[in-house]
């Protein structure tokens, strides 16, 4: 099964871009990469997902390396409300999402 | 549009009791999954149901069971509760079982505390 590894924590200055890396070196060719974030006491919130190509939506951009072994989530202009735990997730066996321990992002004023 | 709704939001039980948690998916979503999130850890997969059939099971004991109803809502049952079952239980729904990378959408969970 494909698994993910992420840094435990990161800081980012308010208004700057936050770049959150993820390694998923065992990902198979037909598995998507998903990003979610979780603010304390709430359920995980979907951000973005991709297969091979880079993706962008109103919340973030997702950059996937050509070999698909790693990806980076980019929050272009971080705000205090972006402080959360960010999970990089791959789908394994059926419809099961594998969550690791995520990256705790702190946006500093 | 309503998102995934879970009830109750909080629950306190004692060891040995049984509990039933409920989940209503987003309208039109046919797949429901359940996750357990212990404090300080990421969610762990428990079950996945699609069209009322179990399609996936995580590494949890038989004390955990679930079902999906014709309206696609779902219940998670846990018997013989242990202190270690204290956690946030999350429900997620998606349009399909698999395909086109459809993301899951999560509810805010049920916080279960075992005394």
Description:
The complex is a heterodimer of chains A (109) and B (115). Chain A has 109 residues and is mainly beta. Helix content of chain A is 0%, strand content 49%. Chain A contains no helices and ten strands. Chain B is mostly beta strands. In chain B, strands 2, 4, 5, 6, 9, 10 and 11 form a seven-stranded mixed β-sheet that branches. A four-stranded antiparallel β-sheet of chain B has the order 1-3-8-7, with no helix packed on it. Classes of the chains: A mainly beta (109), B mainly beta (115). The interface between A and B is medium-sized, with 24 and 27 residues.
Secondary structure topology:
The complex is a heterodimer of chains A (109) and B (115).
Chain A: E1 9-13, E2 18-23, E3 33-38, E4 45-50, E5 55-56, E6 61-64, E7 70-75, E8 84-92, E9 96-98, E10 103-108
Parallel strand pairs in A: 1-10
Antiparallel strand pairs in A: 2-7, 3-4, 3-8, 5-6, 6-7, 8-9, 8-10
Chain B: E1 5-7, E2 10-13, E3 19-24, E4 31-37, E5 44-50, E6 53-57, E7 64-68, E8 74-78, E9 87-94, E10 105-106, E11 110-114
Parallel strand pairs in B: 2-11
Antiparallel strand pairs in B: 1-3, 3-8, 4-5, 4-9, 5-6, 7-8, 9-10, 9-11
Pick out its properties.
heterodimer; A: 109 residues; mainly beta; 6-stranded mixed β-sheet; 0% helix; globular; B: 115 residues
Overall average pLDDT of chain B: 93
User: How many distinct helices of chain B?
Assistant: 0
Rg of chain A over CA atoms, rounded to whole Å, is 13 Å
**H/I helix tally of chain A:** 0
**Quick one: biggest sheet of chain A?**
6 strands, mixed
End-to-end Cα distance of chain B: 37 Å
Q: Classify the oligomer.
A: heterodimer
Query: Main sheet of chain B, how many strands, which sense, barrel?
Result: 7 strands, mixed
Helix proportion of chain B = under 10%
Unreliable segments of chain A (pLDDT under 50, ≥5 consecutive)? none
């Amino acid at each position: 099964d494909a698994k993910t590894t992420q840094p435990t924590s990161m800081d980012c200055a308010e208004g700057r871009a936050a770049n959150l890396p993820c390694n998923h070196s065992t990902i198979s060719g037909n598995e998507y990469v998903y990003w979610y974030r979780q603010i304390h006491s709430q359920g995980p919130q979907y951000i973005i997902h991709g297969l091979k190509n880079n993706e962008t939506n109103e919340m973030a951009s997702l950059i996937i390396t050509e070999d698909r072994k790693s990806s980076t989530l980019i929050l272009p202009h971080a705000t205090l409300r972006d402080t959360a735990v960010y999970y990089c997730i791959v789908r394994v066996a059926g419809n099961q999402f594998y969550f690791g321990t995520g990256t705790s992002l702190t946006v500093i004023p | 549009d309503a998102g995934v709704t879970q009830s109750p939001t909080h629950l306190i039980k004692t060891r040995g009791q049984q509990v039933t948690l409920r989940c209503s998916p987003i309208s039109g979503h046919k797949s429901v999954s359940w996750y357990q999130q212990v404090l300080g850890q990421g969610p762990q997969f428990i079950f996945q149901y699609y069209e009322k059939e179990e399609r996936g099971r995580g590494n949890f004991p038989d004390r955990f069971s679930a079902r999906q109803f014709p309206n696609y809502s779902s219940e998670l049952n846990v018997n013989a509760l242990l202190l270690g079952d204290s956690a946030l239980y999350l429900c997620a729904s998606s349009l399909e079982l698999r395909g086109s990378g459809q993301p899951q959408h999560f509810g805010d969970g049920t916080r279960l505390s075992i005394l």
